[in-house]
Design a protein that fits this description.
By secondary structure, this protein is mostly helical. Among the domains are: 158 residues, Myosin VI head, motor domain, U50 subdomain (Four Helix Bundle (Hemerythrin (Met), subunit A), Up-down Bundle), CATH 1.20.120; 173 residues, Up-down Bundle (Methane Monooxygenase Hydroxylase, Chain G, domain 1); 50 residues; 350 residues, no CATH class. It is 69% helix and 3% strand. The protein has 42 helices and 14 strands. The strands form six sheets. A three-stranded antiparallel β-sheet has the order 5-6-7. Helix 32 packs parallel to helix 34 and helix 33 packs parallel to helix 35.
Amino acid sequence: MLCAAPQEDVDKYKLGSPRTFHYLNQSNCIELDGLDDSKEYLATKRAMEVVGINSDEQDAIFRIVAAVLHLGNIEFVKGEEDETDSSKPKDEKSHFHLKIAAELLMCDEQSLEDSFCKRVMVTRGDTITKSLDPNAATLSRDALAKIVYSRLFDWIVDKTNNSIGQDPDSNNLIGVLDIYGFESFKTNSFEQFCINLTNEKLQQHFNQHVFKMEQEEYTKEEIDWSYIEFVDNQDVLDLIEKKPGGIIALLDEACMFPRSTHETFAEKLYQTFKDNKRFSKPKLSRTDFTINHYAGDVTYQTDFFLDKNKDYVVPEHAALLSASKCSFVSGLFPPLPEETTKSTKFSSIAAQFKLQLQSLLETLNATEPHYIRCVKPNNLLKPGIFENNNVLQQLRCGGVMEAIRISCAGYPTRKNFDEFVQRFTILEPKILKACPDEMTACKRLLDRANLKDYQIGKTKVFLRAGQMAELDACRAEVLGRSANIIQRKIRTFICRKHYILLQLSAIELQRVARGHLAQHQYECMRREAASLKIQKDFRMHMSRNAYKTIYASAVYIQTGMRGMAARNDLRFRKRTQASIVIQDHYRGYSARIYFQRLKKSAIAAQCSWRRTLARRELRKLKMAAKESKALEAAKNNLEMQVKELTSCLETEKRMREAKTQENKKLQHALQEMQLQLQEIEEAKKQENEKLKHALQEKELQFQEIEEANKQENEKLQHALQEKELQFQEIEEANKQENEKLQHALQEMERQFQEIEEAKKQENEKLKHALQEKELQFQEIEEAKKQENEKLQLALQEMELQFQETKAALIQEREAAKKVDEQTPTTQENSVNVVDSELINKLTTENEQLKELVNSLEKKSIQEFPVNVTDNELINKLSSENEHLKELINSLEKKTIQEFPVNVTDNEVSSKLITENEHLKDQVNSLERKIDEAERKYEESNRVSDERMNQIIETESKMIEIKTNVQRLEEKLSDMETENQVLRQQALLSSSSRRMSGKLAPATTPPLENGHQASQGSVPAKTFGAEDKESVDALFKCVTKDLGFSEGKPVAAFTLYNCLLHWKSFEAEKTSIFDHLIQLIGSELEDPDNNACMAYWLSNTSSLFFHLQQCLRVPTTRKPPTPTSFFGRMTQGFRSSNSLSSNAFDVEHQVDAKYPALLFKQQLAAYVEKIYGIIRESFKKDLSPLLSSCSKDKTSNDNSQPSGSWISIIQCLNRYLKILKENYVPPVLVQKLFNQIFQYINMELFNSLLLHRECCTSKNGEYIKSGLAELELWCTEATEEYVGSSLDELKHTKQAVRFLVALQKDELSYDDLTNDLCPVLSSQQLYRICILYSDDDDNKQSVSTDVTTRLKLLMTDDADEDDKSFLLEDNTSHPIIVEEISTSALDKTIPKIKPPAELLENANFQFLHDYC
């Protein structure tokens, strides 16, 4: 339309180039080669006219398409309103496109803009207009464009279907279904997911249909057959579309949540289908998932699943377009029901696709389908090319291979009897004549072919796979033999005829050819004779000329060669003479150089030998320097040697003088031999000069030795000074550490004293209270005894009165009988008199009983206060009350027995009964009061039990504090022993150096780092060039990530084995530990790399454990025996631990020197440092997540955890995975997670007590769901790594239990403190009770009686503004590294294979022994 429409239409719809519209320029594909847009435009208009779309409808269609293009060019920016989220059209261009779109859609421009930039939300009683930000406005614009284009497309499809026409009353249907095949690309999105779901459904229908046809065929022919198995893909369909746990259901659920992303959707899929064999997660992606379809595995990318599945219909858009002035546009958007206009209508593309697919399958099931599989032979779209792998993949994806397998499992080949006989009669022609029917003929033919496992039906022959091929092979063999015979006869006839013709033709050709050859041969012989004569003459001429030229050339060459040989001979003689001269000079030079080298080497050898002799003398002098006499003797010897030398010089001088005198005398006497004497004198002078020169050289050597000794003495003194400075620094550091430890001990002792004083005060209070209770109990028992005595006396009196009344009644009866016998007329009067007397007596007795009961009540109230009760007292009182009840009941029974009915009056008896009931009620009230007293006594017992538990806890804390103090004392004693060893070594080395400085001027050269070897001690470990190379190679290898072997760090055990082999632990002085500590420190420069920190934590902790087990402190000093009880207790614990640690193999333990002990302390410090770095990094990652977890900010269901809790679980899983991958010891992992859960408990609990909005039942349900996720995580992480970390959340759990509890106003103090929140203190309970508020649910907090009681129980010094109810952060306390060795299970040295890099080195061949 844009490229080929008339100009008037383009101007009418305000269109332009396709590249100017946002919806068209995304693909950068505007024109196609070989496609004429104008022809396509005219063809499209003609097709619309053929289908039945008139010109007005076509105009409306093009107008709507143009409006959609203009909508895509509208851009939005942030508005200028006071609201944070608002938007408006970007510029005049956007306003222009908005206006054109409104004109084309025939709607209000402002309403269209408001539908993009605002959203109307209808609540229960009000309507709220919300402004949208630019991103939301852009999404609203795209949603309108999509829905308009979708409705237009649906209208065109419906119009086309209606124009084509179909008989609605027809019962038969012929349809063609052409769908895409199975798709598996590099990037598979929502479209491929829907297409592959369709293929799965159709594949299932195909398998069922083929199986059904096979079954019907076999049943119809009445043959024996078995069930044919085929691959059922129902599990894949359940994975995708099953409700409520299928992928489509989870996708719709994720689309309905506004904050859902494709990451959360993928995580939900991983959690839901982690155990499904058809579902898997790719290793290199966090949001992809893989489904095992029938045609293969397909990996889907979830990046655009949510956006492509959503199909929102905004009510404002629908209302705006339904009110359009264009009837076509308003017809596309019919008015919606009232309930859908109130909010945005959500519809799922996947759900619609699923319903349409279900409808399609219902249609297919109602028909008889036939399948056509189209196969593309090649991807080049060229004929004559057949790609086997591509075709096989298409057949497999289309299910053809599976259908063939199903068919081959049964009887795939079937033929009618007549067709079978007609085709295979050639195998045995005689059978057809001998058989009466075709069935028998088929059987005989099959038996003749030796076929088995076939079936004969009613009308067909059923063959297994391959049997038809065998029959065809036999048939082809018979036909081949017949064809061979026919071909042989025909070919013989044709060849004979052809041979006769060839023979005649050959004879004629031979005759003609022979004549022609004879003529040609004569002509050749004549020409050959002429050519021979010509060649002879020409060759003679050429040979003569060549001989002459060669002769002249040879003479010239000989002349030149002879001159050149003479010149070469002369040049060779000159070079030979020159080389002889050069060799002469060079040999003289080389001889001189060789002589000089020999001279230097001889001098060096002499110097070295003299140095060794001097060293031997020095050693001898050192051995002799222990006594002063030896020193004096040495000095005397030296003086004697000097004197001898001087005497020798004087004697030589004297001899020279004598010789000169003799010479002078001889000169006069022997003038004839003057020349000989001069020669002798010259020789003597030369010898004297040599001697003088030798003496001077000796003196110079002696001076050089003295200067070297002085320099070495100065170096040794400087080294001693440096060592003394180091010792002073170490002593100062030790003093500072001792002062710190003493200060800590003093503080702990002060705390312990305070705890003991508090405990003493509480014990005194308890003793005082117990004494008061004992006094009260004694008073109660005395009052009780008195009251019992009074009651017994009253009962005795009542029994006497009863006996008296009984005797009186008996007497009156006898008198009445006598009177009755004497005067029967006066009977009635006597009875009345007796009744009146009895009634009076009974009334008096009842009054006396009332008075007794009242007195008992008063005395019980006076003598037994409410707050003072005892179990034994209550039991006695209850027993006495029961005894009283029995007595009263016995009295009543006696009165009933003794007073018959005919003696009493009805009114009097009724009064007596009411009075007795009243007495019973009073007794019951007494029992109730006694029960209440029992209950109060039980409450006081519970309070005392709680106080006793607190006392026990304080005692346990005191024991822990004292054990920690004892451990610190042990550390201090160990440090003191090490310092003493160090001081002793320093004293020995300094004394030996001073002695050596006094003994002789020559001393031993210093060792590495200024250390001096001491006499009689273990030789220091020094490293030469080769050892230094080995150490460098070891450190270079250790800096790499060597990994783990059998759960053990390779680097740590390689270091341990090398140090053990080199005996570095037994060396007095060595620098390898300093280099190793520097190496570990350099590897920890990046504290944010948690994997690196975990790797070095595993290595350092493992190395420290083995050092703890392997090294012994070489000291014989016995530790002081503690005097306190707790000291003896901790010493016993230590002895038990030492016995358990001695279970380690004693053969591998070595006596560690000071460098090894210092290295162990530094290694322990690094373990604590690395652990602290990981813990603080863990807390740093959790801190922002916990701040968002303390309060529910969403309005969704609180029973489901939010993204913050999921992020916390992911953080925990990430750190646990890092620690597991690096095989960190489980005790460290448990300690880490214990402190992390303490930190989580502190943060959540303090946020609840500090913020009123957090103390609601809704927020409690939210936190409860998060805690449930943490419990689930702890169960999945196993107790080996988590331990009892979940118990650290007890404060938060009990606070949440209070928040979610129903009917809080009915909770009593006992229910609150015993059942709901037994761990929380009174301040914390009071705080959470006054902060609780939940107005939405009309829930009330606890009663005022409970809050007042909690307020009374709070301490006097804690006011309302005090923060004592908050939990303290105790997670930053350092760990005790010694727990690693006590909790480690493996006490032996594992056999770890060293790195291959070291094994290839010749200096590390000893590592093979540790494998």
